[in-house]
């Protein structure tokens, strides 16, 4: 138990990194996933095909492979640099690219399933008052579609929180990698440390689940 | 309303196009097509600048030795870890899924706690814990054991929820009819509920197995000699061709997972076409489709 108390600043710092990874990649994935969903329901076959290929490739590839590709492929081989002098900043942003690219594929599919819940009459009414495709999508369909999938989006955010641990593959010192390092440093305190980190994830994900459950009930479209 | 496959049909979002719309759509198709090609070209050029399309880097994949010595052993390790973990996870899922439905509180509550806890902890942490906790207890934990242990606990817990949802999806009358015939609790479960639940759960189970297969790649982090390890460490160490090698490995993963995904869709369609079960196909809790289960 002392190990957890002694190392509390380190643990909190690791979780702060986890939170930053989650929030930043979550926001990027939400925006990018919405664009992909719009492409997948658009009248143009080119855009539908491009988005479908993206989604199927990304969600059938292991996240670890994507992160490794971003870290070693883009970072080392392609020399994509976010910070010339700080490797940890660089790896942070490279893993953010990987996490958002991966999660966006799932966001796209969730939003698309939300679009399918919107009744036909809504789009027909929108067209009959002369709205264009983009106006229909932006003003009528997406607001209802997103409100219908708040709960699955929350599950995605929880999954993303846990997925940030994969950034350990390229040495981002988030919670899982820190836990391993602390295991090495305090060989006798493996169980308390594990319980501490597990509790940390419960503290991060439990409120998200409750919040999104509440939001989904509150924002549900009454039909 | 079926989803449109061409521009010629109406969907929820747009009408069947008239002549002017068709013209506009064609122009836009051209524009967006050109834009996508431009993006593809820029990416290609960027990689070309670093010499990534150089034949020298790709030639190893035309040689049999690269496959038989480096890649296929990795693939075999990935598949064997996935197979062992899948069997264990299915057993774990069945035991705890049924346990959660028990009438006895002393079975139901612990089973519920186990399932909820292991679903909430990131898989990578479970794998690390298996390694360090196991050696603390004086056991020799190989990378294989650690990976399989983590996969079993995590995916087993998710499968437990699928099993529970599947059993609950069987209409109540089925169990009641069983009891009315004088069957015992375990007979009702074994002869009536489980066979129908399994049919309904099949698509969800196969989707979860795709997740499990993808998650074996976490073994890379603890240096398990899996497919990703072959593609991102072993092959590049021999030919210094990280990007080509990772692309080839990704193609293998995608092919396997797409095949499993089609299997899930086929199973779902089959069970919808000829219902062998009174239960509606089970979708895990909180999911709008199978998308969320795939996200781990």
UniProtKB/TrEMBL annotation, chain A:
Residue intervals of the ABC transmembrane type-1 domain: 15-212
Source taxon at top rank: Bacteria
GO molecular function, one term: transmembrane transporter activity
SUPFAM superfamilies, per the entry: MetI-like (SSF161098)
A cellular-component GO term for this protein: ATP-binding cassette (ABC) transporter complex
Transmembrane segments: 14-39, 60-80, 92-111, 148-173, 193-215
Membrane-topology annotation of the record: Multi-pass membrane protein
InterPro entries in alphabetical order: AA_ABC_transptr_permease_3TM (IPR010065), ArtM/GltK/GlnP/TcyL/YhdX-like (IPR043429), MetI-like (IPR000515), MetI-like_sf (IPR035906)
Signal peptide residues on this chain, from the entry's feature table: none
Keyword tags: Amino-acid transport, Cell membrane, Membrane, Transmembrane, Transmembrane helix, Transport
Pfam families linked: BPD_transp_1
Annotated localization: Cell membrane
GO BP, one annotated term: amino acid transport
NCBIfam families listed in its UniProt record: HEQRo_perm_3TM (TIGR01726)
Family from the record: Belongs to the binding-protein-dependent transport system permease family. HisMQ subfamily.
Protein name: Amino acid ABC transporter permease
Species name: Microbispora oryzae
TrEMBL record, chain B:
Annotated stretches, region: Disordered: 277-296
Keyword match Cell membrane: yes
Keyword Repeat included in the entry's annotation: no
Bilayer topology annotation: Multi-pass membrane protein
Taxonomic superkingdom: Bacteria
Family to which the UniProt record says this protein belongs: Belongs to the binding-protein-dependent transport system permease family.
Record-linked NCBIfam families: HEQRo_perm_3TM
Protein name: Amino acid ABC transporter permease
């Amino acid at each position: 138990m002392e190990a957890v108390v002694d190392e509390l600043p380190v643990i909190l710092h690791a979780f702060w990194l986890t939170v930053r990874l989650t929030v930043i990649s979550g926001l990027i994935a939400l925006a990018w996933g919405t664009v992909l969903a719009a492409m997948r329901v658009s009248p143009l076959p080119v855009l539908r095909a491009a988005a479908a290929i993206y989604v199927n490739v990304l969600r059938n590839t292991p996240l670890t492979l994507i992160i490794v590709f971003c870290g070693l492929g883009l970072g080392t081989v392609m020399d994509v640099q976010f910070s010339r002098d700080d490797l940890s900043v660089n790896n942070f942003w490279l893993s953010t690219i990987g996490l958002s690219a991966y999660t966006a594929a799932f966001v796209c599919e969730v939003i698309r399933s939300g679009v399918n819940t919107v009744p036909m009459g809504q789009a027909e009414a929108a067209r009959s008052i002369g709205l264009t495709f983009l106006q229909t999508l932006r003003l009528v369909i997406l607001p209802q579609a997103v409100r219908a999938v708040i709960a699955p989006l929350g599950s995605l955010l929880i999954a993303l929180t846990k997925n940030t641990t994969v950034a350990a593959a390229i040495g981002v010192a988030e919670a899982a990698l820190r836990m391993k390092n602390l295991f090495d440093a305090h060989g006798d305190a493996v169980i308390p440390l594990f319980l501490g980190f597990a509790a940390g994830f419960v503290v991060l994900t439990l409120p998200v689940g409750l919040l999104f459950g509440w939001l989904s009930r509150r924002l549900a479209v009454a039909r | 309303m079926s989803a449109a496959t061409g521009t010629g049909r109406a969907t929820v979002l747009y009408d069947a196009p008239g002549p002017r719309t068709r013209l506009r759509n064609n122009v836009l198709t051209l524009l967006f097509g050109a834009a996508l090609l431009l993006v593809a070209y820029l990416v290609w050029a960027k990689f070309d600048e670093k010499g990534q399309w150089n034949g020298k880097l790709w030639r190893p994949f035309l040689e049999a030795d690269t496959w038989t010595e480096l890649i296929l052993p990795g693939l075999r390790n990935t598949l064997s870890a996935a197979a062992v973990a899948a069997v264990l996870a299915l057993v774990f899922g069945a035991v705890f899924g049924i346990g959660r439905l028990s009438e006895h509180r002393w079975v139901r509550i612990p089973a519920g706690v186990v399932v909820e806890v292991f679903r909430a902890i990131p898989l990578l942490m479970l794998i690390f814990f298996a390694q360090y906790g196991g050696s603390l207890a004086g056991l020799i934990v190989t990378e294989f054991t650690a990976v399989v242990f983590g996969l079993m606990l995590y995916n087993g817990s998710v499968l437990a929820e699928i099993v529970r949802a599947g059993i609950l999806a069987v209409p109540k009358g089925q169990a009641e009819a069983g009891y009315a015939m004088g069957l015992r609790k375990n007979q009702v479960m074994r002869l009536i509920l489980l066979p129908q639940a399994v049919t309904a759960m099949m698509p969800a189970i196969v989707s979860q197995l795709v997740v499990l297969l993808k998650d074996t790649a976490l073994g890379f982090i603890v240096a398990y000699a899996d497919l990703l390890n072959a593609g991102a460490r072993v092959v590049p160490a021999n030919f210094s061709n990280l990007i080509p090698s990772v692309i080839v490995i990704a193609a293998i993963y995608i092919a396997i997972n797409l095949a499993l995904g089609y299997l899930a869709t086929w199973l779902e369609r089959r069970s919808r076409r000829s219902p062998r079960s009174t239960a509606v196909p089970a979708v895990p809790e909180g999911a709008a489709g199978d998308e969320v289960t795939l996200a781990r």
